[in-house]
Fold:
Amino acid sequence: MPAPLRLRGIAASPGFAEGPIFPISETIGRYEQKNGVEAEREALRRAIAEASSRLEGLMSRATDESAEMLEFQLAMLADDALTEPAYAAISGGAAADIAWSRALDAECAGYESSDNEYFRARAADLRDIRDQVLASLSGSLREVAPTGSIVYGHDITPTRFLETDWSQGGGIALTAGSAASHVAMLARARGVPMVVALPAPKSVPAGIALLDGLEGGFVVSPSVSDLERYRVRAQKLSEVRREAAKYLAAAAATCDGTAVRVLVNVADPSDVKAIDIAWCDGVGLMRTEFLYGRQGGLPDEETQYQAYRRVLEWAGDKPVTIRTVDAGGDKPVAGLTVEETNPFLGLRGIRLTLARPEIFRVQVRALLRASNHGSLKVMFPMVSDPEEYDRAAAFFHSEAASLSKEGAPHSVPPLGIMVEVPAVAITPERFAHAAFFSIGSNDLTQYVMAAARDNPSVAGLNDVRNPAVLKLVGGLATFGASNAVPVSLCGDAGGDPSAIPDLLQAGLRDLSVAPAQLAMAKAAIAGVSL
Ligand code: PEP
Ligand code: MG
Structure:
């Protein structure tokens, strides 16, 4: 028996898996060069068509969260800007596979070398298209992982994820990868355990392995005691989930009867389809960057208005807090954000929006119009100075005046701020004229602890439960209670059962959580005695 190899990476999707390792082979068969430029062009055309029809096949079975990515990949394959350089290289004498690889590698390189996790994560979608077409060119079919296996490799393409049958368990262990990738999002939505950023051993591991998607563990050739420990933890997790499910439909309260409002965080308007509005107290954060990150440029007023209206109508009379675009930092948007040496400390959130008034104005108008369709609140991200709030709020009043002149129905919603910069948390009194505060614990923690939210080397420091962060959270809750400023929290900590007791003890009574965490958050709240 080989000795157990215990590795630690970053947890990207919770859950446990035990099974044989299935190494992802990225070797693609050899392409046989054709005779002449026209034949090469035709081979590439056919391979692109074949890859597109495979994607269309996946699309027909796709759920919401995968359809958008497949749509993006299909659009890329149909985009002349991507394919033309390859055809040009063929005309210059290159073989179809070389021409295609070079064109796609050039596109991917920019994304992959980015300091930014979001861009690196998008590169996987492009690599996926590259390999799909190369596989078609060489006539090689990729092997599908047997059900229940732990798929292991450098990274996994979204289409490979979609082709795999996860119904009998299994998991994903990657030496690269990212918790912000499409695959990670898909894995969380489907409940497939996933660990990324594992150290790469000298040789590809083989045999049986255990995967811990809660703490980021991966054990190859586990010992009997490893197995026992994992099984106990896996059993515990499924009991916790079963137990938590009982809380989903009920109003949240601590075990000694204090009511806690639990709202959900959404991004794409289609996110709400899977949620029953009766399970939550509204939307505590609608991120709008995702509308901006789509193909075809920045979203126009009508597109935004329809997206906001859809969520507001879904929520009925429950509140929906929409955040103005928070581009920059970990959320770059092509055509909006700028290259910076340290994007987390740069022109992001409200700073960027105020620097681009022509873009902000479009969003403000869409929000003002949507406000008539429900109980809207709007908040500004990354506020660090009261003047930013004042300037952003002024846009709402001046655009409301324009809409009045145009005779367009609208209303000005309550305008609040995200508290995610320590400057605000330390001096909340300077911002008391905002209608409400929503604590962005993801950013607040990284800025208080000087530990980036996307850097595994400092993940241990990036902890909302650090006394310094909790002291600020407690201070905000106290300030809010004594100054009639509602204070909620919408960072990931709000849905983290291990952080919830401290957040409630700090005085918070409104948490907005990822939809997948609703039941677990309510169960964790029920376990707290105040
Ligand atoms: C936060 O920072 O906690 C937050 C909710 O905003 P985002 O994660 O989108 O930066
Ligand atoms: Mg934030």
